[in-house]
Amino acid sequence: MTLEGTKQTLSVTLMQHGFKFRLVSVKHLPELREDIEAFRRAFCFTDEFYSQRLASFVYSPPASFSEATSILLIAAPQPIIEVLFSWRGILRHLYMPPTYLSYVNNPIEEMIQSILTPAGYHLARTAIPLKPIAVRSTLSAYGRNNICYVPGLGSFVRFAAFFTDLPCEGGTWVQSRTMMARCSSCTACIKRCPTGAIEEGQFLIHAERCLSFINEGLPDFPSWVDPACHHCIVGCFCCQSVCPENAAHLHFVEQLVSFSETETTLILDRVPFSQLPDSMAEKLLHLDLVDYYSILARNLTVILSKPDLQLWRILNSRNSTMEYGGQQT
């Protein structure tokens, strides 16, 4: 198959699956590094946030794939994940925001491989910052909340990127950070953010105050975080739920698994993951919660302590105020 035929087959296949994509030259990798380092030099985030979230990026192809010339960046639609927990005789509906299910990367990689390999091309996984390259390549734009939005998909997407040796000529690459035009006249996410992480007039949010950062790590919740703020198993969905760009996607919910009363108790009792029943461990693997297991009991405890208000019905109501656990935020 010719190069153009390979690219055409790849394009058609990705679009048939609802994916959007860009092919970007590896020559832009130093610019991605500089984007982050410039923010670091300007003290736009704490050293703790940098070490936990940004220090592990690698801005070059692996040594075994030195012939890589391009990066194939893909935006895959991903729903809100609903997980059921039986607790004290009640079936509780809890949620994870879009983007948390990394296992979708595997079938995407296999699909691309099935097209490139017969044509004599190769690919390898990357460890690059995906949001900056998505925005710089015009695949997406930042919201005021620093979350990426893809036209037609909102923020209900997961990005995946692969090094390839597909020739990449031209392609769109913008030099500045691009924020959605409607953000200039909208403050919905500022008003909804439960921890004050989003500030008007400032491009970067206060990442160390973001509820997602707080409840994905740290041994304990800071004392200044209102317990009423917590509403997701991991992460936070407040700013995305009120964003006008997501209005058409709020019913994109997928119910994956349920945990029995016994299984919920095992989590809350902090039973080590290695000692869980195999069937329960499989559920956590399917939800990509294994890496979060050490903080899962903490997060569930604060959420399950509230009345079961069917959070998703509240989010879908899109009222000017939302109640979590009987309190307004």
In short:
The chain has helices spanning 3-16, 29-41, 47-54, 105-116, 130-136, 188-192, 211-215, 238-242, 261-268, 278-286, 293-304, 311-317; strands at residues 20-25, 70-77, 80-87, 90-96, 123-125, 141-142, 148-149, 157-164, 253-259, 323-324, 327-328.
The radius of gyration over CA amounts to: 21 Å
Strand count, sense and barrel status of the largest sheet are: 4 strands, antiparallel
Q: Pick out the low-confidence regions.
A: 318-329
Binned, the helix content reads: 25-40%
Strand order of the largest sheet: 1-2-8-5
- In N-to-C order, the SSE pattern is HEHHEEEHEHEEEHHHEHHHHEE
- SS elements, strand count: 11
Give the overall silhouette. globular
Q: What is the arithmetic mean of pLDDT? A: 90
Strand composition percent:
15-25%
**Number of self-contained structural domains:** 1
- Amino-to-carboxy terminus distance: 57 Å
| Count of alpha/pi helices | 12
SS-derived structural category: alpha+beta
Please tell me about this protein's structure.
β3 (80-87) and β4 (90-96) form a beta hairpin. With 329 residues, this protein is of the alpha+beta class. The model is unreliable at 318-329 (pLDDT under 50). The strands form four sheets. A four-stranded antiparallel sheet has the order 1-2-8-5, sandwiched between helices. Strands 4-3-9 form a three-stranded mixed sheet. A two-stranded antiparallel sheet has the order 6-7. The protein has one domain. The protein is built from twelve helices and eleven strands. It has helices spanning 3-16, 29-41, 47-54, 105-116, 130-136, 188-192, 211-215, 238-242, 261-268, 278-286, 293-304, 311-317; strands at residues 20-25, 70-77, 80-87, 90-96, 123-125, 141-142, 148-149, 157-164, 253-259, 323-324, 327-328. It is 32% helix and 17% strand.
